[in-house]
Design the sequence.
């Protein structure tokens, strides 16, 4: 019988996990002897196979992959869902939720594009082809602007079907994709980096007479300013070298960090934009993470900062989209079903920034 061919990122992760864990989810001998792949955590399923939930924060971080499987039956894998991609996507009856197209709901105000990107997602392209020049209304003046790109570096970006924090891409057997270096960790994060570079490059090429600067923030449990306001050329270099964080999802911290990059004198007379690229709702800080994010967004909008959410979700969830719309400055969300589809948003985003 021929060897099974594993093609997608989720299948590759599953194959690597099965090499460590025996049938029924039990550790193999090699798995038991490896102390580096075990961290104290919660299990995703109880002995009956039903999903468990943390009473403390509602998140199901699993840092011991073998505990994903119940002793009596194998657990079903979870997909990025309502808790920033860290909770199981099951309904109350324990059945898997079926993804729906955002376009199937006429009341949604999200912009859904799911055309897959055929470019190489394993590396960041610093010299992408520009989009067609934006065409704005005749009475629209293209103002000088600053754009902060807030990149989601949380665990759900790289953990796939096995929800884990993936701190600094650990454990590699679950978090890291084959062919991707540990600093970038997975193809999903590489796609985000490439998409961000495409947006910066396009805005620089298509608006040569407009004064503009770019800053970069990466966020997970906390946010870090990767680059203060700088030129497109310098920003592309920074994006190419960003190292993946891992952890929870803190949108409030991301918005506040972007605001700090706008505090210099160069920002005073320019329109300010925050491009919030994320794959789930807020899961940090403890208590009321979504409410904290909404307050941060409200304060930013009071300062006339325009927030543009880019939401990556394989399933349609009205509650998640409603949350992202509350963060948005115009109640709209750019929505794609997977990371590979991000580049399909490029032209729309360039027009949004150019013609605001």
Sequence:
């Amino acid at each position: 019988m021929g060897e099974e061919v594993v093609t997608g990122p989720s299948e590759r992760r599953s194959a690597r996990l099965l090499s460590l864990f025996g049938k029924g989810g039990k550790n193999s001998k090699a798995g038991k002897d490896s102390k580096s792949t075990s961290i104290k955590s919660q299990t995703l399923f109880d002995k009956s196979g039903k999903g468990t939930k943390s009473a403390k924060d509602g998140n199901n971080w699993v840092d011991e992959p073998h505990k994903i499987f119940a002793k009596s039956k194998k657990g079903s894998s979870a997909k990025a869902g309502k808790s920033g991609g860290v909770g199981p996507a099951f309904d109350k009856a324990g059945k898997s939720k079926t993804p729906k197209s955002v376009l199937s709901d006429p009341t949604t105000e999200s912009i859904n594009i799911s055309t897959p990107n055929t470019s190489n997602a394993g590396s960041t392209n610093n010299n992408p082809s520009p989009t067609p020049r934006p065409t704005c209304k005749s009475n629209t003046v293209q103002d000088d602007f600053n754009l902060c790109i807030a990149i989601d570096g949380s665990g759900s970006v790289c953990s796939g079907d096995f929800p884990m924090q993936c701190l600094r891409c650990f454990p590699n057997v679950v978090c890291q994709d084959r062919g991707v270096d540990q600093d970038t960790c997975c193809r999903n994060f590489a796609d985000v980096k490439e998409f961000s570079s495409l947006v910066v490059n396009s805005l620089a090429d298509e608006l040569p007479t407009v004064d503009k600067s770019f800053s970069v923030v990466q966020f997970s449990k906390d946010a870090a300013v990767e680059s203060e306001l700088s030129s497109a050329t310098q920003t592309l270099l920074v994006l190419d070298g960003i190292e993946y964080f891992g952890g929870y999802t803190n949108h409030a911290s991301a918005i506040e960090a972007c605001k700090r990059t706008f505090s210099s004198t160069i920002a005073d007379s320019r329109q300010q934009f925050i491009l919030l690229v994320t794959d789930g709702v807020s899961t940090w800080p403890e208590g009321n993470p979504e409410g904290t994010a909404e307050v941060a967004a409200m304060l930013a909008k009071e300062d006339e900062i325009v927030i543009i959410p880019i939401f990556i979700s394989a399933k349609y969830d009205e509650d998640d989209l409603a949350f992202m719309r509350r963060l948005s400055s115009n109640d709209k969300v750019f929505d794609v079903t997977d990371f590979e589809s991000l580049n399909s948003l490029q032209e729309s985003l360039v027009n949004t920034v150019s013609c605001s």
Observations:
- Residues 2-6, 20-108, 113-134 have pLDDT under 50 and may be disordered.
- The first strand starts at residue 110 and ends at 112.
- The beta strands are 110-112, 145-152, 212-219, 223-230, 271-278, 305-312, 333-336.
